[in-house]
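Supplementary Methods S3. Input chains for the assembly prediction are listed below.
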Amino acid sequence: MKASKLLLIFVLILSSCSKESGNEAVKTGPVLLKLTHTIEGKAFSRDSLIYLNTAGNQYLVSNIQWFISEIEFIKSDGTILKPVMDDGIFYVDTDLPQTCSIHLDEIPSGNYSAIKYTFGLDEASNSSYRFVNPPESFMFWPEYLGGGYHYMKLNGKWINKDGLIAPFNFHLGIGQINNEKESGLNINYQFGYKSMYDHCEGFNPPFLLPEVSSFVQNYFEVSQDLDFIVDNETESFIKIEMQIDKWFDGSHVYNHDDWGGSIMQQQNAQEIARENGLNVFRLSIDNN
Amino acid sequence: MLRQAWIFYVLFIPVLAIFGCSDKAEIEQFKTTPYLIDIPFPFPTALNIPADNPMTVEGVKLGRYLFYDGRLSGRTHPDSLMSCGTCHIQANSFEAGINHPVFSGGFVHGINGDRTSHVMLPLINLVWNFSGYGWNGFVYPENTNNDFRNIEDIVRVAVLAENELMGDTNHVKPLFQNIEGYPELFQKAFGSQVITFDHIEKAIAQFVRTFVSTNARFDKYIRGELQLTQSELNGYVLFTTEDGADCFHCHGGSANPMFTTHLFYNNGKDLSPDDPFDRYSITGNVNDIGKYKVPTLRNVALTAPYMHDGRYKTLDEVIEFYSSGVQLTPLIDPLMHHAVRGGVQLTTQEKADLMAFILSLQDDSFLTNPDFSAPVKFPDEN
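Predicted structure tokens for the full assembly:
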């Protein structure tokens, strides 16, 4: 009896030792990503017609909804860590403060030197109907325009060339290349559960709308250096700042008077936004 | 001592036995059956069902009786009866409709003739609404006031309001307590024959949450069950393009099949909005002046008059407003970017195509679903 008790204690000690050493191998810590939205370095003042872009447009911003996805942490030794998350896609909404914080648990401890992520959704992820619940489902991008979801809705107003306070929808997503009609339809995208043209014999878009021949993926990856440490004792706070003004003042000067109030069907504007977007985001350690 | 024991055995034990039987019977009777809402893809899977009022077959059954029972007003005179079903007509998507025999033009009022502040909104797919009820969203889940959070609360508001049922909960409870058959139904739904207004609210709310529409022509088209006409398809493209009619940001589409976001917008109806019951009256945010909830377009042909004040009698008038009548007001929503040219500027053909598509959102099976209809008999008539 005594011997068996001793054996049991011995086994327990052994197993607890092995568990401890296992824990040491996978020490992890929490990381909080704070998503902020600024103009000229300060949190934007909603619906305030006080901002001026390089093109000379006086403008305001009402709200922004967007997706960030495919977040990766890169260690100093080059190791890439993809934080474990449901589907790796996060909806951010300036009207919903809870969406502006992303809590990541169990990030392996260590020194990191960069973060990489996708603005919007990449082609593989951006399939229609992947979100059935609001608010994500409200971001759908119509099938005729390429399907999937808006990468971003940035809604505001500007004083246009006629002096009117005009609304703008700076909505980014899949772009379209329009057909010149004579070559016929050459589209292969899904509408509902079937290809639109399997599904709609005789379909003929209204004459004012151009026929679409192909689509353009306008999402982009952002990779930025940032030295930060993850440990198991304190939470790391990292700020991902969308500098809203940079959408309009980057490698291209974006003039609302040139593009008007809506750009979902203007691939040239989407292209400008994509190129300016590469410099829109700023990373920093945030311990406030 | 012996005499006392005799009294105990003769009187007390049978009494205990009777109570024991009654308790056991009550416990046995109160077994509810979960009511499951059929959710076809791609409708939302998140449902607005309060934790303290789960859907049950028994609760829905009771709610159906109450919804249509004119005695919910607390009155019994045939000329003064009013129920939810008095105004919420199934054939009109549970709105009064412009053809209502009593409420001329679809403008509802209470027994004293007082009109409601706004025209009605239809009771349809509310189980998917998390953004507040009413044109201004005065009842919403996050409300710090517990009495204005969900459909249950709207039942109470409707019963009490002078311009609706103009009832009195203190009359309603004893009235139903004494109607044969109702206490038993409450027992089955909530485990007690004692009728409370809380249980009345809950039962009706459960019934209203069953009003789910997922079988319009467009739904069937998306499921590959039928083909839409060319005009309907053209209308859908117009509906979902910014350079077309640009309806989809607020009114949804195939991937938001509710055909509303349930959110609040100023759509440029008035240069100087002066309605004291707009969204601003709830939030106090000046940017919400002139904002109202976006109604669903399902069955919309049956829910005239349109806009919060019923200013348009026909869908043609509504389409014309969005085509050429939008006013560039200071507080117009940014999504209304076409306002700089007065609207989306549709041609006659485009208006016809858009109308054809909108009519494809009519769900006839919803309008005739016997599960939603008035019961043939009320409990005391069985």
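Chain A has four helices and 17 strands. Chain A has a mean pLDDT of 84.
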